[in-house]
């Protein structure tokens, strides 16, 4: 899979030539797109690792359960934030009022589904905090188990 | 609410979530580090460590950004956030990429490491096999070392055994190179060849000790047969004397058909040879003595009758011619009588006579006084060099006087006219004998005749002048006295050589110590 990916990407880049400027200006949508691609890359890597662990399980137990949960939450967080970024990009400045004191910041009415979705997806910490929590729990389990094995081996 | 949905809850959740993210990411990093330290070789541990590190970076970037954003909003500096947002966003993007790269490459690294582990396992297996082989080789090496040590010990013992045999052998053992030069020889060989050190012999050709005809025969036999067994030869010794030897030798095979040299054992049989010669001589003397006694007895009486009647006839005959014929008969009969007398003397030499103790020097003086006149008539002078002390011996004085007379007569015959005879005497304390040497400056005795001069009836004098019994009788008398008589021509004594002596008879008798 990785090999295919690593072959396909350069191939696509080679098949789609474009004039390269010595000093390229990075403005407009480029930053947004890069960030979105980052999220996609992050998401695809999570899908890949989950798929890989499914095919070649390293082991079983709580630590791996926590790890998988963490990855799932990170995937969900990525999709959430990706959606949020895309929605925000589709909106105009008046849809989300960020002027003035922060208590007066709001998503302006009328509340369309897109705006509602934007609003809800803005609570992304609801996903990324559990993801990090499960990762920490998973690592704690790994650590404890390994240290216990090391202790037994030393004994 | 009429304006829309307030973002304050979002900010509150962001604030709390950002704090929790920072806390949890640090906690995850803490455990990831411990996990990595506990399992430093684990790929999973490395992956999780670097994943956590990246997520810490993401948390700091993102949560920090959120916190800064809230604080900026609180301060009313919204525009500042607009400048800062792209920075945090970019950092977040970098973190995403890093996480993705790590995650994509983790299984690959795992695969590589798995392959490395597989290779390592193979290496361990190979290493184990190598250890086994090494152990086997070590065991074999130890066995070989043990064998080599054992063989070396055996070889050393064998070498010592044969070296001891070589060095302590009473017979000469020698080794020659392909060119016939002596490459090694034992001490007995050094003594046999009359040398004092081995170095005097090493490198010398073996041929130099042989007589030419014997060497050719020896070499031919060795080359043709490959060995020489009981080869009798007379060797020249370094001191000028000779030694009778028996040689047993083998040819050493060289490269191809070449002779690599020879090795052999040489036994000195000089003493045996002399003893056998003496034995043979004694036997011969005994036989000749018996025969002589019989012949003398049978001839003596008729000779007496012949001489008696010759005397009677001489008184009666008056014819001068007849008397001359009768004188011839009487002279020849007297010659026969002298021969018979010698024969009787020869045959009676074993009988022994009156034994007494007397001074050998006195005997010499008396005998010389008796013959000096006759010698001087031939211009032969006798020079005495006698020891000052008395040389007492026990024996028959008259018979020993006869020996001396015989030797002086022989000297006279050898010199002819105008010569010198030297008589020396001395006591050899170490050997307990007294020695008398009678030397002359006559014509000498050829080497090939020296072995025969003591044989009865052997003479070089013209027929009628010698019976060939003088030295044989002398030999018998000396032997009867427990002494020895030898001839040297030329003399071994350097002093005699300087005096021009050509022949010396050396007589030795058991000496008596003179009472003090």
Jot down its keywords.
heterodimer, A: 155 residues, mainly alpha, two-stranded antiparallel ribbon, 5 helices, 3% strand, flat, B: 516 residues, alpha+beta, Beta-Lactamase, Helix Hairpins, 4 domains, five-stranded antiparallel β-sheet, five-stranded mixed β-sheet, 12 helices, 13 strands, rod-shaped
Topology readout:
The complex is a heterodimer of chains A (about 160) and B (about 525).
Chain A: H1 2-15, H2 30-55, H3 62-90, E1 96-97, E2 106-108, H4 113-121, H5 125-154
Chain B: E1 4-6, H1 8-38, H2 43-75, H3 78-168, E2 172-176, E3 182-185, H4 187-192, H5 212-225, E4 227-236, E5 242-253, E6 259-268, H6 270-316, H7 320-347, E7 356-359, H8 360-377, E8 380-385, E9 392-395, H9 397-415, E10 419-428, E11 433-440, H10 447-450, H11 470-480, E12 484-488, H12 494-498, E13 503-510
Parallel strand pairs in B: 8-10
Antiparallel strand pairs in B: 2-3, 2-6, 4-5, 5-6, 7-9, 10-11, 11-13, 12-13
Please, could you describe this protein's structure?
Chain A has helices spanning 2-15, 30-55, 62-90, 113-121, 125-154; strands spanning 96-97, 106-108. Chain A has 155 residues and is mainly α. Chain A has one domain. In chain A, strands 1-2 form a two-stranded antiparallel sheet. Chain A is flat. The model of chain A has no long low-confidence stretch (mean pLDDT 83). With 516 residues, chain B is α+β, with helices and mostly antiparallel strands. Chain B folds into four domains: 8-135; 172-268, Beta-Lactamase (2-Layer Sandwich); 274-347, Signal transduction histidine kinase, dimerisation/phosphotransfer (DHp) domain (Helix Hairpins), CATH 1.10.287; 356-510, Heat Shock Protein 90. Chain B contains twelve helices and 13 strands. Chain B has helices spanning 8-38, 43-75, 78-168, 187-192, 212-225, 270-316, 320-347, 360-377, 397-415, 447-450, 470-480, 494-498, and strands at residues 4-6, 172-176, 182-185, 227-236, 242-253, 259-268, 356-359, 380-385, 392-395, 419-428, 433-440, 484-488, 503-510. In chain B, helix 6 packs antiparallel against helix 7 (320-347) and helix 8 (360-377) packs parallel to helix 9 (397-415). The model of chain B has no long low-confidence stretch (mean pLDDT 86). Chains A and B meet through helix 2, strand 1, strand 2 and helix 5 of A and strand 1, helix 1, helix 2 and helix 3 of B.
